Predict the structure of Copper transport protein.
Amino acid sequence: MMHMTFYWSRKVNLLIDSWKTNDWTEYLITLLACLVVAAFYQFLENRRIRLKLIGAGNPFPAEIEAPLLRRKLAGNRAKVGVKVAGAFLFGLSSAIGYLLMLSVMSFNGGVFVAVVVGLAVGYFFFRNEGEDSLVVDTSCACA
């Protein structure tokens, strides 16, 4: 039976039928996996935003300043490559975002907390510098 309200239990069925936790070890590994995937989602969004900055020809932030990179991106073929890479990163981050959303919809309180903490940790480490001035399209509300 699927829960329709939040519950706190070590027994959770996450995303697929074979991903069931029955003891505390499995449950803690599941929570750690949710946390790591949520932080990785923020990392992918950071890479996508940086790629978008490169493709738009905006000034590079100091940490990705590279003279050789500017010369390579000057050509038209390179812009197509940047668009393809951006589309790939967008698709991948959208898929991960939706999987995180479905994980939260298991209504397990621990999974919810793990995903939110993972997003916050990922934001702290990967996305809190210089992105406020850039408007970014996203497919997930948890961006």
